[in-house]
Amino acid sequence: AAKAAGRNRFRIFDEGLRGHLEMRRDGERDLSHALAENGLAVWFQPIFGEGGTRIAGLEALVRWHHPVHGWIPPGEIVAAAARSGLSESLLRFILEQVCGAMQTLRADGIRDVRVAMNVSPREMGQLPVDEIVLDRLRALGLSPALLEIEITEETALDIEAVQHKLLALSGAGIRVALDDFGTGYSSLASLRQLSAGRVKIDRSLVTGLSASDDKRGLVQAVLGLGRSLGLEVVAEGIETADDLASLRHLGCPFFQGYHLGRPVPADQALRQVLARRTDAA
Ligand code: C2E
Ligand code: MG
Ligand code: MG
Ligand code: MG
User: Fold this and answer.
1) Does 18 score more than 60 pLDDT?
2) What secondary structure letter does DSSP report for 174?
3) What kind and span of H or E run contains 68?
4) Distance 119 CA to ligand 2 centre (A)
5) In Å, what is the CA distance from 234 to each residue of 90, 139, 244, 271?
6) How far apart are CA 122 and CA 132, in angstroms?
7) Assign residue 109 a region: left if phi > 0, alpha if psi is -120 to 50, beta otherwise?
8) pTM for the model
9) Is 114 helix (H, G, I), strand (E, B) or coil?
10) 237 lines ligand 1 (CB under 6 A)
11) Nearest ligand, CA of residue 93?
């Protein structure tokens, strides 16, 4: 029986692996179609300030519903783009949707909601992200002060290639946020080298913090770091009212997570921003 089970397990694994490889090949071919034919979308998740009541920002998150394979995780999309030489097209596509959201906000008279986009370490290292982004903002007459670029600390591994780009971006007024803070080798040096003005505490430290002294201690330390270095701190991955309450109690200034708002299509996210305004007014 054990042998049969072992064989079955192997067969299942084998099929899973084959499926994965097929999906990879399809993925690379289909991604270029998706990019060309509006198969990709950018959704937005709200970031809240002021105790979790006011929307202070929107984070752009790429979405792809593949006709056969269903929802493809963003990491896979970014990796498939890299393998098939589509990284710049993908970056430009996302930037376009982000600029569209910034234009809509401006048209609605909203001048204090920043839009954030994620840029992978590879994209930051290999593409002229600073030129691409700044040229586009200039062409559309959009203020760099309303854009944020989220990077992760692996970006620091190629510091020679990225430092001048990050300086150009932050010098122009775009805020650089260090995402997933607290997961790896997050050092004070990398915060400085990367011109970060904001840190986002990783979900792994936030989810369940109300029930964990260890997590609370770590989050408290990051908040202290933020205060002493003049960095804004965002907690991401807030899934419960208890975690939100603990974060408020610790003095966390910005909040993001399913408990407060999930990623939604652009029109819906923009409606939420407006609705929150009229509520408060
Ligand atoms: P991230 O930038 O740290 O984004 C946060 C991720 O956590 C998003 O997943 C979001 O949907 C999810 N999330 C937000 N709140 C909660 C919560 O309360 N609980 C849980 N369990 N999850 C939550 P998503 O959209 O799947 O993105 C995953 C990662 O893929 C992102 O992590 C980011 O690193 C990358 N990514 C997403 N969009 C893009 C993009 O346009 N370009 C690049 N380069 N990377 C992207
Ligand atoms: Mg992010
Ligand atoms: Mg993150
Ligand atoms: Mg993450």
Assistant:
1) no
2) P
3) none
4) 8
5) 26, 30, 12, 23
6) 15
7) left
8) 0.91
9) strand
10) yes
11) 1
Is 94 a pocket residue for ligand 1 (Cβ < 6 Å)?
yes
Q: Is the CB of 154 under 6 A from ligand 1?
A: no
Instruction: Please compute the mean of the pLDDT values over residues 88-115 and round it to a whole number.
Output: 97
In this predicted structure, the answer to whether residue 190 has a pLDDT above a threshold of 90 is no
Q: For residue 117, what are its two tokens?
A: 């986009």
Q: Count the Cβ atoms, other than its own, within 10 Å of residue 55.
A: 22
On the question of pLDDT at 8 being above 70, the answer is no
Neighbours of 196 (CB within 10 A): 27
**Ligand 1 closest atom vs CA 123:** 44
Q: Which of 43, 72, 118, 176 to mutate to test the pocket of ligand 1 (most atoms within 8 A of CB)?
A: 118
Whether the CB-CB separation of 114 and 175 falls below 8 Å is answered with yes
Judge if ipTM > 0.90.
yes
Nearest of 166, 127, 171, 132 to residue 149 by alpha carbon: 166
pLDDT in tens, 160-174: 999 999 999 999 999
Strand partners, 40: 64
Among 165, 181, 264, 245, residue whose Cα is nearest residue 219: 181
Q: Would the CB of 74 count as within 6 Å of ligand 1? A: yes
Strand 198-201 to 40-49 pairing: unpaired
